[in-house]
Write a structure and sequence with these properties.
The chain is mostly helical and 180 residues long. It is built from eight helices and two strands; from the N terminus they run ααββαααααα. It has one domain. Helix 1 runs antiparallel to helix 3 and helix 1 packs antiparallel against helix 7. The protein is globular and about 45 Å long. The chain binds zinc ion. The site of zinc ion (ZN) has 6 residues, from helix 7.
Length: 180
């Protein structure tokens, strides 16, 4: 799996690309952070909730990249979240579903492009693990131990990925300010 740096970079891209579409839904904040930013960050990291079981049981490899790294699981969590948001505000079901699902799916795709055994992207229909033919991330390998020089490589490459994402977002056309 890539580290949270790369996953949060992807979540931030979803935030930046979707924050202007439904201003009436996205202007609200949680504390000092825009609510939409919190949502994209949470859903871009949510598949790795299975890491908690691995840490608790001391058997990281057995539980990681399994059911929570499925597109069906992503659709399930996104549906529940969108339904809760609709229940609160009576609007925005499709918007919140799309934002959550895209953030979640990007995580799965990035893991499938990482040095690993692959992700169970179509669980529960099949336990087959999928990997993209092209590897983009070295990722975290806890079997290397907590202090490994290889983590520096992960850190460096994912900071470069973050810089690339931020650079590409700068190319995004700016919306003209709405005159009142
Ligand atoms: Zn993951």
């Amino acid at each position: 799996m890539p580290s949270p740096i790369a996953h949060l970079a992807a979540g931030y891209a979803v935030y930046r690309l979707s924050c202007n579409h439904e201003p009436q839904l996205t202007m609200q904040s949680i504390g000092s952070a825009p609510r939409l930013l919190v949502v994209t960050a949470v859903f871009s990291l949510l598949p790795d909730i299975d890491s908690a079981i691995g840490f608790l049981t001391g058997d990281f490899g057995r539980f990681h990249n399994n059911a929570t790294h499925s597109l069906i699981a992503g659709a399930f969590f996104s549906l529940i979240f969108a339904a809760l948001m609709w229940w609160r505000g009576r609007q925005g079901f499709l918007y919140w579903f799309a934002v959550a699902m895209v953030s979640y799916s990007l995580h799965i795709m990035m893991d499938a492009a990482t040095v690993s055994r692959g992700v169970m992207a179509l669980w529960p229909f099949t336990d087959t693990r999928y990997l993209f033919p092209v590897t983009l991330f070295y990722g975290l390998h806890w079997s290397d131990g907590w202090l490994s020089i290889r983590h520096l490589w992960t850190l460096l490459t994912e900071l470069l990925f973050l810089a690339l994402v931020l650079g590409l977002l700068q190319l995004q056309p700016q919306r003209a300010a709405v005159k009142s």
